[in-house]
Amino acid sequence: MAESKAPDSTRRSEKSRRAIYAAALSLVGENGYAKTTIEGIAARAGVGKQTIYRWWPSKAAVLLEAFLDLGEQAAEAAEAAGADGAYEIPDTGDLAADLKLVLRATVDELNDPTFEAPTRALAAEGIVDAKIGAEYAEKLLEPQAALYVRRLRAAQEAGVVRDDIDPRTAMELLTGPIVHRWLLRTLPLTHAYADSLVDYALNGLAPRPPRH
Amino acid sequence: MAESKAPDSTRRSEKSRRAIYAAALSLVGENGYAKTTIEGIAARAGVGKQTIYRWWPSKAAVLLEAFLDLGEQAAEAAEAAGADGAYEIPDTGDLAADLKLVLRATVDELNDPTFEAPTRALAAEGIVDAKIGAEYAEKLLEPQAALYVRRLRAAQEAGVVRDDIDPRTAMELLTGPIVHRWLLRTLPLTHAYADSLVDYALNGLAPRPPRH
Amino acid sequence: MAESKAPDSTRRSEKSRRAIYAAALSLVGENGYAKTTIEGIAARAGVGKQTIYRWWPSKAAVLLEAFLDLGEQAAEAAEAAGADGAYEIPDTGDLAADLKLVLRATVDELNDPTFEAPTRALAAEGIVDAKIGAEYAEKLLEPQAALYVRRLRAAQEAGVVRDDIDPRTAMELLTGPIVHRWLLRTLPLTHAYADSLVDYALNGLAPRPPRH
Amino acid sequence: MAESKAPDSTRRSEKSRRAIYAAALSLVGENGYAKTTIEGIAARAGVGKQTIYRWWPSKAAVLLEAFLDLGEQAAEAAEAAGADGAYEIPDTGDLAADLKLVLRATVDELNDPTFEAPTRALAAEGIVDAKIGAEYAEKLLEPQAALYVRRLRAAQEAGVVRDDIDPRTAMELLTGPIVHRWLLRTLPLTHAYADSLVDYALNGLAPRPPRH
DNA sequence: TGATAACCGAGACGGTACGTCCTGTCTTGAG
DNA sequence: CTCAAGACAGGACGTACCGTCTCGGTTATCA
Q: Please, which residues have CB within 8 angstroms of residue D10's CB and are 6 or more apart in sequence?
């Protein structure tokens, strides 16, 4: 059942891999994803084209891995810098405040022009190419999602979220609209919007029956 | 001070335009958007390439117009078939039921494999190309959004939605998560999910204080 | 029975054709045939690669045509310069002298370093590729051969060559050894050698019976 | 002052060498010389590419050696089969008949489709690459030429060829036209042609003065 | 009798050129 | 003027080989 033509990854050149990541990221930053070519990446990385085609199935796959590598390096750096490893959504007891904090951070990140082009490009590629999409979701989205789920479960245990709520769906109620606005650029993405979403989601749209 | 190179649209060939729409849609359906080329569209439409370049700025623009045209034709057909023109979200008095109805329809539409490829392609293009994205949002998303806003305002007047709620944000609370799941394929898109969203959005995640 | 994909030669760019000829000849002169690439020819000619692939089946075909064109232009120039058009082997009545004259000229031409590289390259290509070889023979060799045949026929009429001799074979008796030496570089190619060939061929190797 | 990178030929793998010869010859036979690659030879021979690059400077050199080896093996086989080793042109006393015999054999050999492709390929390579050409001439052509020279010298001693004839040039008068026809495919190569060449060469083209 | 060189198979590497495809522009001839 | 047709310059595609290199794994002398 082994792949007949799989290259021998033990002999892979680490130097080339890193150079390809760097070249891909810089070219996408400079010219945009559409104008970035495999040929251009190879040239800037000082690498033969075949070395890219040998290890990646597509331009999108290269960029995705480069992105993931960037994240991993940042994580390692953070860990080395003293943090206790796993980042978590804070739990101050005030769920609304905690969620607003992280959603505002997400909003800021999405509005950061540095990351905008490559992130949009990857998202677009993932929308069309299921393979890329799955990897994108698994590697970039899922870890983030898990944080929300943990915080929401804690909230359920603390009694501030109903027990019959599915944390996953609850998370999507918060992040879905933000991603939607960012992707489709329908309306500006602001801190106020993030706050509104938290309030609406936690308390619902229907009026509360008045206490007696 | 008119555009020096603007073609004279009064002399435009209607037949060619329709042939281009048909060719574009069929080719995207057969081979996917990425493998569809302007040359291929021109060939299948029996049209010179210049005729496409003269009237559209990009492949995405062609497909977008083809899509809009499809919608318009469907609308005209529906109108001719007897309906009173403007479609609306029903108002039975039961907001939750009404919303579930339309959200389930949206889910079905998004799951329809016929429309999947071109819709994803357009969405992806819109994510990367702001021009396309704006037109996409204005022509395809906005009319749909307006229906929700109207229905939610009616609900506010009826007192089943709080007055301080922004209908636009409320709408995004419902459709955002659905679009998000569809685009990123994180989890399957079902009627049950649509129902949950309505319930969560209307009632919130936090427990209601007990009536006295 | 028409070719399905034949390009329309009436719309062919004369300028590009000439530029391709010039580029091909100069590159072969500079770097040799083997190191001359279609890509290089296209680049120097300021032409798209497809323009070469559209009109020629191979690098050898390009060079062959370029060579033929060179000959035609030289011929036109000569004609314009006053000559009476068709060049002929002179007929002074002394066959041996006349043949030595042209064979010495041929030797000089083959020893000319300017023409050596491209001519060898074309000959080599023709040896391997029958199509090229046939065109090479027809366009470059045949006209030359016809001159010999005419001169030898005149010699037969004048009674200095036996009537039962095939002029074609006779010609090959003269040129074959020269071409052979040139191609295979077995021994140097000199005027003396050319003279010997004429003497040997005209008088034979066997001793003449003594006159009475 | 020895070559710093010369491999140690005493440790050379005989098995690999033979496998490379066999692979080279079979691939040239199957696909032609141009489509035969060093990589392909190595793969079929079950040999690393470096083993070829270590011992041969070029593809042509590999094929040339393979060819020579073929000839040597044939010679050894012939010797073992009883012959007295050195082959010679027969000397029956009738020079014309003897020459016709060997020239007809040469014609048959050149017309043998089995040897055609590789022989043409080698000849073509030798025409362009002087190094290969020299080796080709020395190893394959020279031994053959020596046979002619010996037979012609014997003819001179017997008085059937004039003493002032250069045997080498005389030989070229016979073989040159045949090789020429074969290489350039101008006209078919037949026994009759070989016979004519012998007659023309021996007796010359000019009429003999009538005996008194 | 190990050390220590070589050759060896294998195949990744930086490159070059291939021949194909498509882009967006330009030109031609018909209507 | 628009249109169908398609040639053009340009350039990226993905593939095939080039010739070099590095990697274990056998041999096959020498210490």
A: none
First to last CA, chain D: 74
Domains of chain A: 14-75 (1.10.10.60), 95-203 (1.10.357.10)
CB < 7 Å to strand E — which of 33-52 in chain C? 35, 37-40, 48-50
8 Å CB contact between A122 and A136: yes
Return the beta strands (E) in A13-68 as ranges: none
Chain C residues closer than 8 Å to D34 by CB:
128
Contacts of A75 (CB under 8 A, 6+ apart): none
The residues of D between 71 and 110 with beta carbon within 7 Å of nucleic strand E are: none
Q: Give the amino acid at B177.
A: P
Structure tokens at C177: 């050894």
- Cβ within 8 Å, pair C197-D169: yes
Whether D180 and C172 lie within 8 Å, measured CB to CB: yes
- Residues A86 and A143: beta-carbon distance below 8 Å: no
Give the pLDDT of residue B11.
75
D151 compared with D2, residue with greater pLDDT = D151
Integer Cα distance of C193 and C179 in angstroms: 12
Identify the residue among A184, A191, A197, A198 best suited for mutation to test binding to B, counting B beta carbons within 10 A and taking the highest.
A184
Q: What is the pLDDT along chain B (212 residues), one digit of tens a residue?
A: 444 456 777 778 889 999 999 999 999 989 989 999 999 999 999 999 999 999 999 999 999 999 889 888 877 877 777 655 557 899 998 999 999 999 999 999 999 888 888 889 999 999 998 888 998 888 888 888 999 999 999 999 998 999 899 999 999 999 999 999 999 898 999 999 999 999 999 998 777 665 55
Q: What number is the average pLDDT over the span C199-211?
A: 78
Average confidence (pLDDT) over A100-117 = 91
SS3 content of chain B, % helix, strand, coil (to 5): 70, 0, 30
The whole-angstrom distance between D80's CA and the closest CA on chain C is 32
What residue in C sits closest to D131 (Cα-Cα)? Answer: C185
- Euclidean distance between CA atoms C156 and C174, whole angstroms: 16
Distances A174 to A153, A170, B200 between C-alpha atoms, Å:
15, 7, 11
Confidence of residue A2 (pLDDT cuts 50, 70, 90): very low
Q: Which of D31, D94, D98, D127 to mutate to test the interface with C (most CBs of C within 10 A)?
A: D127
Strand E–CB B13 distance below 7 A? no
Residues B138 and A140 sit within 8 Å (Cβ to Cβ) = no
Neighbours of chain B (3+ CB pairs under 8 A): A
Whether any strand E atom is under 7 angstroms from the Cβ of B40: the reply reads: yes
